[in-house]
Write a structure and sequence with these properties.
Distance between the termini: 52 Å
Strand content: 5-15%
CATH architecture of the largest domain: Alpha-Beta Complex
Structural class: alpha/beta
Number of helices: 8
CATH class of the largest domain: Alpha Beta
CATH topology of the largest domain: Conserved hypothetical protein from pyrococcus furiosus pfu- 392566-001, ParB domain
Helix content: 25-40%
CATH superfamily of the largest domain: Conserved hypothetical protein from pyrococcus furiosus pfu- 392566-001, ParB domain
Shape: globular
Strand order of the largest sheet: 1-5-3-4-2
Number of domains: 3
Radius of gyration: 20 Å
Length: 260
């Protein structure tokens, strides 16, 4: 018999009054107010509230995934632990009960999908995709599966693309990395930057060229992250019954490009 374990792996320890997700999807809190089902969150209970969220309402949008990808081994381990009674901190989502984005907890949610859950308990905050991204940029800097250098680079690249008018120090705070690392990524080419940047004092400063053009070495990890994001968006738009055909087409195109 397995002993139930409590994890704080993808998210910081959660000490709120809401539900903690278990292997069965049950909660240890009172049901959320009926008003929460109305759609957009409002009122004092809307910020950081624990809610029952349908899996179909969650946007698996890779533009808020700040790792280079999902680690299948971690998903398998989490799924097994949940089936054996382990409890994890609830994922953190931004949006409404009808449509929300992942701020923290990709591996936990994927584990629940693997276990066949149709609903999960989660912290739901008002916001949109960019709010989820701001949360995600540093979500795993101090807990969960340790970020690789490629993960940090992806986070900075996403931040530079979405918040290009921020200074390197502000981006470094968003991503919880050093400002020198941000400057390295910013000057590495292929990342659009604003002609002006907003400093910590709120003033605008010249940021140089709108885009950098310094040639860089071929970075396979960065390419992998970009391809994963592009294919993720492509397959998410493809009907489920056509995805096998799409996969075959992509494989054929790869052979064509490689000259095979």
């Amino acid at each position: 018999m397995h002993r139930a374990r409590v994890f704080a792996m993808d998210a910081p320890p959660w000490t709120g009054t809401g539900a903690v997700m278990s292997a069965t999807g049950s909660t240890n809190s009172a049901p959320a107010p009926e008003a929460a089902d109305a759609g957009p969150l409002a009122g004092p209970g809307a910020v950081g509230g624990a809610f029952r969220i349908r899996m179909s309402a969650i946007k698996f949008d890779v533009s808020t995934q700040c790792r280079t990808g999902i680690d299948p081994a971690t998903v398998v381990q989490y799924a097994e632990d949940k089936r054996n009674g382990a409890t994890f901190p609830p994922p953190e989502l931004y949006g409404t009960k009808a449509c929300c984005w992942i701020g923290d907890g990709w591996h936990r949610i994927e584990a629940d999908r693997k276990n066949g859950l149709k609903e999960i308990d989660a912290i739901l905050r008002p916001g949109n995709r960019l709010d989820a991204l701001r949360h995600a940029l540093k979500a795993n800097s101090s807990h969960g599966k340790q970020r690789s250098k490629a993960d940090k680079r992806r986070a900075v690249t996403l931040a530079l693309a979405e918040f290009s008018d921020l200074s390197s120090r502000q981006i470094s705070e968003l991503c919880d990395v050093s400002h020198t690392f941000v400057e390295t990524v910013r000057s590495g080419g292929n990342v659009a930057t604003s002609a002006t940047r907003i400093g910590a004092d709120g003033k605008r400063y010249s940021g140089g060229n709108v885009a950098t053009s310094k040639p860089t070495a071929f970075d396979l990890e960065n390419v992998r992250a970009q391809l994963r994001e592009a294919f993720g968006k492509l397959f998410s738009r493809c009907p489920a019954d056509r995805r096998r055909d799409l996969g075959s087409m992509v494989a054929a195109l790869l052979k064509e490009v490689q000259g095979e």
